[in-house]
Amino acid sequence: MKTLKWRIFLLVLIVCGFYYIAELSFYAALSIGSVALVSAIAATQPLFAFFYSMGLRIFKPEILKEKFDNFDLSVKIIGIIIIIIGVWIVSTI
User: Fold this and answer.
1) Count of domains forming the chain
2) Cα angle at 60 between 4 and 17, to 5 degrees?
3) How far apart are CA 42 and CA 88, in angstroms?
4) What is the per-residue pLDDT for 54?
5) Cα angle 59-62-63, degrees, rounded to a multiple of 5
6) Are residues 21 and 48 both part of a single domain?
7) Mean pLDDT to the nearest integer, 2-19
8) Which domain range does residue 14 map to?
9) What is the reported pTM?
10) Do 23 and 56 form a contact (C-beta atoms < 8 A)?
11) Is residue 44 domain-shared with residue 18, that is, in the same domain?
12) Residues 9 and 39 placed together within one structural domain of the fold
């Protein structure tokens, strides 16, 4: 049991480190680039999360135990498209 807790702690520590680096990179990009460009690039995050979850679903299906069919796939893709279009509209105004 202690080994599992130690592994979870290390995993959380690694994820927090990546998050910290991502936040620093985002604010550094905002300080040197235009807000429209940085926010447009940041809007692609759901797309990467989608591809990551699809990879987990294919290679490690026991990790993500979710219902998945063509309807769910289409809803996720439409959601990603709406997010990207919304950020594009806001950044061009």
Assistant:
1) 2
2) 55
3) 11
4) 84
5) 85
6) no
7) 84
8) 1-32
9) 0.60
10) no
11) no
12) no
